[in-house]
């Protein structure tokens, strides 16, 4: 083995161990970086030409191996917009100005910026709009991705379209007796109103329910006009509901002074032959009355107060009226070879020929991992392992340097002999 070959091998060792130490340094520096994935040094020998009579040195080279697919531990946070993926996949983000270029990250430390977008530094979280129940509107293709803007639904309000009524109309009332109940409803602008239901016994086992024009919640002003007729309610001899006319019973309100659209409210007064809605049973009370319990789908006006992430990647908006509704679904991108992604600054990655193209999924479907709200994925750096690797690199570097020192002395000896 020639001295020049030994020197060449030592130089390659110094260079490779220096690169390995740089990787270790990066891993240790990012031990507290959320979503950080370590890079490992992979050494391989260079080509050697040896036989039983001669030996030609080759040396060593090093490459970095990205561990993007490694799973970090999840830790709870107090921030409702933080999220973490457990399993395969990455969050899809954009750089804001260039919305056509999609990047990917495992760092879920998102927060709402001044304009209402969910951001992580300079990157905007991408997802799909949903209906109020959290179902994606349209397809889950990459072309339908949007930057998640919580101000897209900054207010809420919905008209009452259905209402279920439960009450007992006293069987011991005489024909001609009437009782009143109040029912809260909402117009299409989310304005609260109330209407008075007058229950009148018109015959044996027969009642009518008539509705007053809706007024403001304080009863100060009339807000609309009831244009539908009174509802006739018939009961069986055992006090269960027999039928209603019309069926289904409907309340129609026109001419809202608030500027809202006309209302049509369909009532569920119970099943025929059942006591799960309206009943006619004797109460035996000295003073007869009707106590109404209702449940309706209208929503009063409310403004956005906060945002939180559900465990299925659904973005929920919370309002000051106590309502909550889904507004977006976070997209999860998977790759055939996630370790082949190209790493960029800020903990983000871009596609490469090695990684393949991204496949977008709703969390927990199609092999994508599950999203957990109010949690973050910690760095995959194991400080004990990195310190061990650092000591190994230091020893190998020192050994290579010692080889160079020895070769230098041998060169000096050779030059002295020539003189």
**What is the straight-line distance between the termini?**
23 Å
- Average pLDDT works out at 91
Radius of gyration: 36 Å
- Biggest β-sheet, characterized? 13 strands, antiparallel
Low-confidence stretches: none
Which shape, going by the Cα principal axes? rod-shaped
In DSSP terms (H or I, runs of 4 or more residues), the helix count works out at 2
- The total domain count is 3
Report the sheet-strand fraction.
Answer: 35-45%
Q: What is the SS-derived class?
A: alpha+beta
Q: Strand tally, please?
A: 33
Helix content: 10-25%
Describe this structure in words.
The chain has helices at residues 3-29, 383-418, and strands at residues 39-45, 49-50, 55-56, 60-66, 74-76, 83-86, 90-94, 102-105, 111-112, 118-120, 123-129, 146-147, 155-158, 162-168, 178-186, 192-203, 206-211, 215-216, 225-226, 231-235, 241-245, 250-254, 263-268, 278-279, 293-296, 299-309, 314-319, 324-334, 342-343, 348-350, 359-362, 370-373, 375-377. The chain has 419 residues and is an alpha+beta fold. The protein has three domains: 3-67 and 380-418, no CATH class; 74-156 and 302-377, no CATH class; 160-297, Flagellar hook protein FlgE (Tick-borne Encephalitis virus Glycoprotein, domain 1). Strand 10 (118-120) and strand 11 form a beta hairpin. Helix 1 (3-29) runs antiparallel to helix 2. The mean pLDDT is 91.
């Amino acid at each position: 083995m020639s001295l020049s070959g030994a020197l060449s091998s030592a130089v390659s060792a110094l260079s490779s161990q220096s690169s390995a130490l740089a990787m270790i340094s990066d891993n240790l520096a990012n031990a507290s970086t959320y979503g950080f994935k370590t890079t490992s040094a992979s050494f391989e020998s260079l080509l050697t030409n040896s036989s039983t009579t001669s030996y030609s040195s080759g040396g060593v080279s090093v490459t970095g191996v990205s561990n993007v697919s490694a799973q970090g531990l999840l830790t709870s946070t107090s921030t409702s917009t933080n999220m973490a993926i457990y399993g395969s996949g990455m969050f899809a983000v954009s750089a804001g100005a260039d919305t056509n270029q999609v990047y990917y990250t495992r760092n879920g430390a998102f927060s709402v910026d001044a304009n209402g977008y969910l951001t992580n530094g300079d990157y905007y979280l991408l997802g799909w709009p949903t209906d109020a129940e959290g179902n994606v509107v349209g397809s889950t293709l990459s072309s339908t991705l949007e930057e998640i803007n919580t101000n897209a639904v900054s207010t809420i309000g919905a008209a009452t379209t259905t209402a279920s009524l439960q009450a007992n109309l006293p069987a011991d009332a005489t024909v001609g007796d009437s009782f009143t109940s109040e029912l809260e409803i909402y117009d299409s602008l989310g304005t609260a109103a109330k209407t008075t239901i007058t229950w009148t016994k018109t015959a044996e086992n027969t009642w009518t329910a008539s509705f007053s024009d809706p007024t403001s919640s304080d009863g100060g002003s009339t807000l609309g006009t009831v244009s539908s007729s009174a509802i006739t309610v018939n009961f069986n001899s055992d006090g269960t509901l027999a039928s209603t006319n019309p069926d289904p019973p409907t309340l129609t309100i026109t001419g809202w002074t608030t500027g809202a659209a006309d209302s049509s409210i369909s009532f569920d007064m119970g099943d025929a032959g059942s006591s799960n809605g309206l009943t006619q049973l004797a109460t035996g009370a000295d003073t007869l009355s009707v106590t109404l319990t209702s449940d309706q789908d209208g929503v009063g006006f409310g403004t956005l107060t906060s945002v939180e992430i559900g465990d299925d990647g659904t973005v929920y908006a919370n309002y000051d009226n106590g309502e909550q509704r889904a507004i977006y679904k976070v997209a999860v991108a998977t790759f055939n070879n996630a370790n082949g992604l190209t790493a960029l600054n800020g903990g983000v990655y871009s596609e490469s020929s090695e990684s393949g193209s991204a496949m977008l999924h709703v969390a927990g479907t199609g092999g994508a991992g599950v999203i957990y709200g109010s949690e973050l994925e910690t760095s995959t750096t194991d400080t004990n392992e990195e310190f061990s690797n650092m000591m190994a690199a230091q020893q190998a570097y020192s050994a290579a340097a010692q080889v160079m020192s020895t070769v230098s002395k041998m060169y000096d000896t050779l030059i002295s002999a020539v003189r």
